[in-house]
Every structure is written in C-alpha cells, then in structure tokens.
Amino acid sequence: MSSPTEQEAVPASLDADARVAPSRTEPLVAAASRPVGGPLGEHAAVGRHWFWTPQRIGLLLATLALMVSWFGKASCIQQYTDSNGENQLDWRAGRPYVAMCYSDIVPLYSAERLNQPGTFPYRTSWVDNAGTPNAQVRYMEYPVLTGLFQWVDAKLTQGWVTMSNAGWLPGALPVAIYFDITAFWLAAAWLVTVWAVGRTAKRRIWDAALVAISPLVLVHAFTNFDTIATAFAATGLLAWSRRKPVLAGVLLGLGAAAKLYPLFLLGPLLILCVRAGKFRDWARTAGATVVVWLAVNLPIALSLNPGWREFFRLNGQRGMDPDSLYNVVSYFTGWAGFDGPLRPGQTPTALNFVVGALFLLCCAGIAYVGLTAPRRPRVAQLCFLVVAAFLITNKVWSPQYSLWLVPLAVLAIPRWRLLLGWMVIDAAVWAPRMFYYLGTDHKGLPQDWFLGFVVVRDLAVVGLCVLVIREIYRPALDKVRLAGVDDPAGGALDNVGDVFRLKPVRLPQLSASRR
C-alpha cells in the first residue's frame, strides 16, 4: 500500500501551506491585475490585513453580484394602474421574455396558492383544467423543505402587508414583496455557498471568487430556489473536509429535502471510501443523511401523503424539456421520442427508463474511473462528474440547475479561464431561451436557435468532464495537487493510502507489423 506522495511526484519547491495567489497562477487574473499594479509580488505581506481577508472579499464580490442579479429580475415586479384604478403586475407585451427578467418565484406565488390566507403546502389542493377531460387535482410540486420555505415567505409577506397597511412599512403588490423576501433568503444561501467553498478550498481560498462572481449567479440566483440546495451541498462537503461525517450527513440530508441532487454526492464518497478503507465514515454520513431526510419528509408523507407524492408524480409524468438532449435529437431528426406524443397525465415510461439507464451507466463509468485511477481522485472531482452526468442524461435541465455545478466545478477544476468560459456560455443560453418562449409571432427566435445554444452548453460541460477525467488519470496536471497536497476536501480520505483498487482493463495491443 503506497502513500499518495509515492504514487505521484509533485513539485517540492512549493509550500503546501502557502496561499495560492491567482494573479501569479492564472493568466486571466494576472492580466486583470495590471491596472492595479500587476501580480502579487514575491515579498508581499500576505494574510496580515486586519479585515479584508480573501473570504470577506469573496463575500463582498458575491453581494455585489447578487445585487446585479436582483436588478436583472426587478423589471418583472414592476406594477401599473389599470383602467379600474387597481395596481397590477406589469407583465404586458411579453415583458418577462423581452426584458429577460423571468423568475419562477413570481408566478408560483399565485399558482401554488401561496397568496391565499389559510393555505398550507401539501394540504391545499386545486384543480387544473377544471371542466375538461384533462382535469387534475394539484398540490405543491416542490420537495418538502423548498415547499415549506415558500410557505414561510408567504406568511412573512402577509405580515409585511399588514404592517404596510398600518403605515409602518412601505407598500407594494404582495407578489413583489414576496419576491423580495424570497430573494433575500436566496441571496443569504448563496453567500453561505461562497463561504463554504472558500473554507473547503483551503490554500486556494481565492477560487471562491469564481463562485461569487459567476455569470450564472447574475442570471439565475433568483430564477428559482436552487441556492438553498447549493448551500447545504457546499456546507456538507465542508463538514466532510473537516472530518465531521455525521454533520456532513445532516447537511446533505437537508439539501436532499430541498432538491434531490445533494443525495448524489453520497455515491462518489462511497467509491472513495471503499478505495481508502473508510467505509465506516461513509456509513455514518449516509446514515445521518437518511435519518434527516426522513425526519423532514415523514411528517408530511404520513399526514398529507397525496400532496407529498405530487413532486414524485409530476417528475415521473414530465416529458422531455425543450433544453434536454432528447428534445434536441427529436427536433433535428423528426423523431417523436421513446413514447411518441403523450396525452396529458400520461407517464413517459420508455423515456424514464432510458434516462435512468443512461445515468446509472454514467455512474458505473465514474465508479470505474474512481477505482482504477493511479491515484485516488479528489472528492470534488467525482462529485462534479456525477452531477454533470445527471444533468446531461436527464430529461429536464432547467436553467437554474447549472448553479449546482458552480461550487463543484470550482473545487474540481480551478482553471479560471476555462470555468469562466463555460459559465458565460451557460448563462448566455438564457437569452435565446427567453426569446424562444416569446414566440416567433412576437418577434422571438425559432426553436433551432435555442437548441443550438443548448448543444454548445452541453458540449462545454462534457469538455469539463473530459478535463476532470484527464487530470484524474494524470494527477501531475491537477493544479490542486501541487506542493504535496492530496485532497483539501477529502477529510478522512486526505493523505490516506489505498486498501482496494481495481486494475484498469487494458485492451490488447497490435503487433508492430499490424500497426
């Protein structure tokens, strides 16, 4: 059993505890630093300022980015006075798409019946398409923690409106107040994400600035409720890196109760723990995850089961979204899909099977990579591969889902130019998406333009996956593993030798004459 330092040589001239300065290591940052004096000098005093630490600068940058993001959505909470003298939300003339300010938070306030007093998620129901053959009883469509989050924000909105009517607070349309209250908590969740990534990155703490100023944050921080899940996932990885497996499981369980994807992080941890002989640590994390998820879900599942099952029912019946690869293939080939045209309420059984099979196949491939690499991969590398595989193979890739990848990508491949290039491409998909939804009848874009951007985005993510796999098999190229560093996010796995490893399958080589 060999140690990580024996498995792969690293430069000995670098200090493993020295903070990495991006102005020295990243050409993009070095060029950007020229107007303020250029890269950090060799004799500069580092880490001595009493207030402006890299962590606080990252949080400041994230705050500024979130302010820009809010202003980008603010156009969709403007109001006007109609002919009856009543204030209305100004969504006239396709404003959400023309101004590209659309946010799910605004229509869901009334669609989920949060604007009505006395309602409670998973208990309150309504009928869609009433009086037609396609009539359906509906409930809150989000996982429990996200649904309760929306309900609490709605109650805070009602309290604000009450105090506003009494003259104690400024007033506005309830939906605008609801959006602002929700945006405040979502912004706080993203700040927690930035903080956790900075703490997990350790000597590469400046990499958290990529999370803070990501173009995806500018566009999608307030598109939906996904920053809640990123906060729990990032803090869960931080707890794991601090050798606190139970706390990591608690945080991942809460994240899975908000969005499903933090649950996927248990898979990479399992592979790495099996390889390092740390299965007990993984079992403690997985056990805590399951217990916390059940503690959040069971009270609703047992008392309000039809409402609790709504999230799973809708995901099962959902067809391929416009931004999935299945829809891209369907559009450009004329293929109707695995199940053909679906009737309302019909489950796309074949599509669901193919989606699940492809994701499991990708997970098997990632497990093979994790068990055959010459040096045990870093936690963030495998976590990024699993979440990226889920998004690529899934039948739904809502635009805000890309936020899931941002913290993992920064920890897995801290290459600023490549990551910013991908983030710009991914964020830019928002523009053709909005004008595609506007419709060609209203001077919008045809579908093929939008799908072309989707393909470019997917290729960019696939390219990042290829780079991660390349660095896994050639760890000398991994920028994190310089100066003898093993895995800053590894926790119990950091600087631990292997007890189990598969030998990679070697294809038979051709003889010299046949070559």
UniProtKB/TrEMBL annotation:
**Localization (cell):** Cell membrane
UniProt keywords, alphabetically:
Cell membrane, Membrane, Transferase, Transmembrane, Transmembrane helix
Q: How does it sit in the membrane?
A: Multi-pass membrane protein
Q: Pfam families annotated for this entry?
A: GT87 (PF09594)
Spans through the membrane: 175-197, 209-240, 246-274, 286-304, 349-373, 418-437, 449-469
**What family is this?**
Belongs to the glycosyltransferase 87 family.
Record's protein name:
DUF2029 domain-containing protein
Q: Which organism is it from?
A: Amycolatopsis acididurans
